[in-house]
Amino acid sequence: MRSLLSGVTKAQVETDPFPHVVVRGALEKATADQLLAEIPPVDVITGGARYGSNEYFDYSAGQSLRDNSLSPLWRELLEVHSSASFAREAFDLFDEHLPDAVRRIVNGVNGPRYGTRGIDDFTSCDVLVDAQIVLNTPVVGTPSSVKGAHVDRPRAFYGATCYLRKETDASEGGALELLRMRGSN
């Protein structure tokens, strides 16, 4: 499986309001359809927790890659996107936009030691990579937002989102909005 960044070039990096890329059609339709058909049950992703309307849950690579019931396609997607290879691909794509301290880490002579978040830790790794299956539980009753404007994990070097939405899903919302930090130009 190719990564979601496969074929994306530095020329596609947008810098406003911060460096990012939007990759439409990153997955072939058949692959996206199969992933939707094989998504783990809600109770697996929620860890069996009770939940209400429009709640956020994630199933990290550290959890999902230990799940023997995970479909081979989901396993492959998560393995690819929680790998050192994918992290290097992301760092290479955004290299000129990385803070100097981060660039020194990822471009060092020996390079960083990569691991998977939730499996490895910083005692043996310099960079931990994760790929998650995330869901918001169905909205029942009054429409709501699971998260308002926020900064994803300020300690993270990068974040990526791949939306998988059934063609029959006529609900509104879920669009990604990129905002400027307060006080920035």
Short characterization:
By secondary structure, this protein is α+β, with helices and mostly antiparallel strands.
- With strands numbered from the N-terminus, the spatial order across the biggest sheet is 1-4
Q: Tell me the distance between the termini.
A: 39 Å
> What class would the helix/strand composition place it in?
alpha+beta
Task: Compute the average pLDDT.
Answer: 90
Instruction: Tell me the major beta sheet.
Output: 2 strands, antiparallel
Q: What integer value in Å does the Rg equal?
A: 18 Å
How many helix segments? 6
- The percent range for helix content is 10-25%
Shape: globular
Number of separate strands = 4
Q: Mind explaining what this structure looks like?
A:
With about 180 residues, the chain is an alpha+beta fold. Helices cover about 25% and strands about 10% of the residues. The chain has helices at about 30-35, 40-45, 60-65, 70-80, 85-95, 100-105, and strands at about 55-60, 115, 125-130, 135. It is globular, with a radius of gyration of 18 Å. The model has no long low-confidence stretch (mean pLDDT about 90).
